Every structure is written in C-alpha cells, then in structure tokens.
Amino acid sequence: MSRDFASTKSNTRTSLPSTTESNVLGRGLRVRGRLSGGSDLRIEGEIEGDVNVGGALELASTASVTGNVIAKSVDIGGALTGDVQSDGAVVIRTGARVTGDMNGAEVALEEGAVFTGRIEADFELPDGLGGESAVGGRGKRAGASRGR
Amino acid sequence: MATVIGQDITIEGEITSDEAVVVAGTVRGKLNVDGPVTIEAGGVVEADVGASTLSVGGTVTGNVVASERVDLLAGGRLVGDVKAARLTIADGAVFKGNVDMDV
Asked: For burial by CB atoms within 10 Å, which of A46, A113, A139, B93 has the most?
C-alpha cells in the first residue's frame, strides 16, 4: 500500500515540467526592452525592461531584472529592481536581492534575502474568522520596510 | 542553459547574448548573438540579426550578418540583406534581398 503511494508520488514529480517546450532566457542573454508571454518563463540573464507572463516566472540566482514584473507566480533567486504583481505566490529566496513593492496572494521572504520595499498580500479571510477585518470578505495587510 | 524563446513569448527591444539562442516565438528590435541562432518554424524575427551561424526555419525580416554561415531551410522566409561567407537556400524557402559573401 505504501508502495502504491510512493509510485503515485514519483509520477506527479516526473509530470511536473508543464509545457511542451520550456522558455529559458539563458545566463549569457541581455535584453533591453519589453518581454511578454503566456506561459512559464525562466530567466537566468539580464533584463532591462518590463516582464509580463501568464505563467510562472522564475528568476534564477544569476538573473538580474530591472523593471516591473507581472506573472501568475514569481520565484526570485536573483536580483530584481522593480514592482511585482502576481495572482499567486511571490517567493523571495535566500540570496535574492530585491528592491520594489511585492503584490501577490501570498508573499514569502526567506531568510538571507535582501529586500527593500513594500509587501502587500491580498487575501480572503475564512468565514467566521477575523471579525471586523473580514467586512466585505477581504483583508489587506501591508508591511512597509522601505529603506530609502 | 542556452536561451529558448518559446512559441508564445514576445520580446520587443534589443537582445544580446554570448550563448546559443533558439527563437520559436517573436522578436522585434535587434538580435545580436555571439553564437548560433536558430529560428524555428513558427518563429518570427523582425529585427536585424547578428550571429555566428543562423538557421532560418521561420520568418526573418531584417538584415543578417553572420560570421560563419546562414542556412535558409525549406519553409523558411528571409526578407533582407545577407552578409555571410556561406549561404544555403533550401528548395521551398523564400528569400528576397541582397547577398554579400565578402569576396
């Protein structure tokens, strides 16, 4: 029985890479301009300009982005100067250097990340929880730590 | 990992790279690569292109300079001037422009 469970688990793991062809902007790449797309994108190089993708955006540790970012979810391991707008999770990893306002359904800041800016997470409070702040079913939390 | 600009990705602006670049999406502006560039079928490049080798299976509108070679594949479309020491144009490819083989 536990064997069955293990095999299902490994199956989900192998099927994780989603699209037919993954979009990668490699380490040696430099873009000065606008970038948009509908699917997932991994950036390892340097971007000067806005990035707008419909899928998950991953900034590798070698990545450097100067511009505003819109994506379904954002995973930051490198350098980002600009605001982030996301419907889903925003994760700022250990070693990341981020300056800007983070706006997502959930924002995670790992230990060892350097962050300057504002974190704003929109979330729905569950029924019967949160009392007054649940008026309209929507809560808003802003933790400002702007260092400039 | 080298760069893959996938089908639904659009980049408008200047791109430079010192690694291989594969374009299956859309690029407008400039594309300067110190390495091979592959434009796959369905890929659209409206830009001047500089590369070591350029392989065109998609559409390129713009001038091309390649330090080694340019291969225009069947189904590929290139409108623009080509400067390269070696050039092949496959049967079924579309080409309009001048060729300079630097002799």
From this structure: A46
Q: Do A34 and B11 touch (CB under 8 A)?
A: yes
Q: Please check whether residue B16 is in contact with residue A39, taking contact to mean a CB–CB distance below 8 angstroms.
A: no
Please report residues of B whose CB lies closer than 8 A to that of A24.
Answer: 1-4
Q: Report residue A11 as tokens.
A: 């199956």
Nearest to B10 among A29, A32, A36 (CB): A36
User: Under the phi-then-psi rule, with left for phi > 0, alpha for psi from -120 to 50, and beta for the rest, what region is A19?
Assistant: beta
Distances (CA, A) of A2 to A9, A14, A15, A111, B49: 11, 19, 20, 35, 56
Which residues, other chains included, contact A107 with Cβ-Cβ below 8 Å and sequence gap of 6+? A89, A90, A91, A92, A119, A120, A121
ipTM here? 0.89
Comparing CB atoms, the residue among A35, A39, A44 nearest residue B1 is A44
